Amino acid sequence: MKKTMLLMSTAILATAFLAACGPSSKDDGTITRLEQNGNTLTVCDFAKVKDTLNVPLSEWVEDCRLVRFENTDTALFKMWWPAITDNYIGIRQSGGVFKLFDHKGKFLHDIGAMGQGPGEYAGSLYSELIDEKNKVIYLAPFAGSTKILKYNLDGTFVTDYDLGERLNKPKLSLNPDGSISLVHLCFQGMSEMMGAVITPDSTITKYIPAPGQAINPRDKNGRFVGFNNEIWSYNNVEGFKYMMMPVDTLYNYNAANKMEAQFALSNPPVGEDVFLIYDELPGKYLATVWGKGTIVVDNKNNNSHYVKLVNDYFGGLPAPMNFTNGWFFAMYEPAVLMENIEKRMAASDCTDKDKELLKGLLESLDENDNNVMFIGKLKK
């Protein structure tokens, strides 16, 4: 069965919504909510967001702990991105094997292996899912493969799902029924499908773009530049929320083939070096404007601000806007974290209590150890 997905720019979407229903009454000067057919599109006016708030991490997460990854040779890694669940931390590496740890940092297993054989992947991965309920892990190669790979939690290969065409930077999302959804960069003249749903019984339903919806992979000189585009998707709330460059809108896409616009910026900055990353957390949208900062749209209080997070669990250390699978994280090589701690301790607003906590943390670190990572589960 073939179905279509709809991709439109913010300007087109806003025009369509306003023509159908008129502007929403909910507008604090930066936010407009546009309603149509039971769906709400939230639009934040970038030009009107001015102030910056320092927000303690404890407002957003239930707790925060430091994970110290074990130091054996098999446990060492160079992280590209983590996958975090209630009991596991998976580490995606650039050009390396996917590694599975527990929350104490104990190395459990390599998942699959590098290579060309069954259950192996020849290059970097681009997406992963840890399904604790069904005790499986899914991996999606960066590009060049037609397959999504499935493994047991002990790293043994189970099966693969062949989508029948080359996947370009595929992103995965787990559905409540155990099926998985994916989207990838659908290149004009090169790709037939834009997304798919794979059920537990291996049924694959493809989603075919309408004319004009695929991405032009070539620049004005005809050079292939398709992989300059990215797909942002972090699985921090229910549903499959993703943003695909160069489309400037956050969408929700689910197993029932509902694909609806959720969030966008109006009047965003323009320029070759400007790009946007949108995400949704419980009760809020994030808009990271590269080079400018991160705007947080608070859906409860109906306002928006630039936000800087402060890790008040660990002495007021600056906290990055890193979230995945419903968790905050901040990964460091020990030497880098040690430098950050020393800078924080030297800051004029660092209290004696914070200095004492940070001093103990600093003395516990060894620059020759494996990576360490702060993690905290997002509040609902």
List strands and helices in order, with pairings.
Blueprint: E1 2-3, H1 10-21, E2 31-36, E3 39-45, E4 52-56, E5 65-68, E6 79-84, E7 88-93, E8 98-102, E9 107-111, E10 113-114, E11 120-121, E12 125-131, E13 136-141, E14 147-152, E15 157-162, E16 171-174, E17 180-183, E18 195-198, E19 204-207, E20 231-232, E21 241-244, E22 250-253, E23 259-266, E24 276-281, E25 284-289, E26 293-298, E27 303-311, E28 317-319, E29 323-324, E30 327-332, H2 334-346, H3 352-363, E31 372-377
Parallel strand pairs: 1-19, 3-23, 4-27, 10-11
Antiparallel strand pairs: 2-3, 5-31, 6-7, 7-8, 8-9, 12-13, 13-14, 14-15, 16-17, 17-18, 18-19, 20-21, 21-22, 22-23, 24-25, 25-26, 26-27, 27-28, 29-30, 30-31
Helix pairs in contact: 2-3
